[in-house]
Amino acid sequence: MQLEELNTFLREKVDDMKAQDIATIDVTGKSSITDFMIVCTGTSKRHVTSIAEHLTKESKSLGITPMGINGDNQGEWVIVDMGSTIVHVMQEEQRELYNLEKLWG
């Protein structure tokens, strides 16, 4: 799967679960660990966790296994590392506090 197709797929899967304010940040040349970040907001701990679980399940069904998943025990900020793209699923408070769009934009 090409990078653009992967990012479209990832955005669609978080949107399937009603993630809010989905943003894609190009960090090519700014980060040595990834090329893109997708940031979205969940409305509760359970919602954040559910979005990440759905994304992981749907990715695996296509044969794309995440390199890592962090934060799913707390549900405030879950990171799903897809290699060339890292998906950040955050509650609104964490998203406002860390403001990844401003930090990496």
Automatic annotation (TrEMBL):
<keyword id="KW-0810">Translation regulation</keyword>
<dbReference type="GO" id="GO:0090071">
    <property type="term" value="P:negative regulation of ribosome biogenesis"/>
</dbReference>
<comment type="subunit">
    <text>Interacts with ribosomal protein uL14 (rplN).</text>
</comment>
<keyword id="KW-0678">Repressor</keyword>
<dbReference type="GO" id="GO:0017148">
    <property type="term" value="P:negative regulation of translation"/>
</dbReference>
<dbReference type="InterPro" id="IPR043519">
    <property type="entry name" value="NT_sf"/>
</dbReference>
<keyword id="KW-0963">Cytoplasm</keyword>
<dbReference type="Pfam" id="PF02410">
    <property type="entry name" value="RsfS"/>
</dbReference>
<dbReference type="GO" id="GO:0005737">
    <property type="term" value="C:cytoplasm"/>
</dbReference>
<dbReference type="GO" id="GO:0042256">
    <property type="term" value="P:cytosolic ribosome assembly"/>
</dbReference>
<protein>
    <recommendedName>
        <fullName>Ribosomal silencing factor RsfS</fullName>
    </recommendedName>
</protein>
<dbReference type="GO" id="GO:0043023">
    <property type="term" value="F:ribosomal large subunit binding"/>
</dbReference>
<comment type="similarity">
    <text>Belongs to the Iojap/RsfS family.</text>
</comment>
<dbReference type="InterPro" id="IPR004394">
    <property type="entry name" value="Iojap/RsfS/C7orf30"/>
</dbReference>
<comment type="function">
    <text>Functions as a ribosomal silencing factor. Interacts with ribosomal protein uL14 (rplN), blocking formation of intersubunit bridge B8. Prevents association of the 30S and 50S ribosomal subunits and the formation of functional ribosomes, thus repressing translation.</text>
</comment>
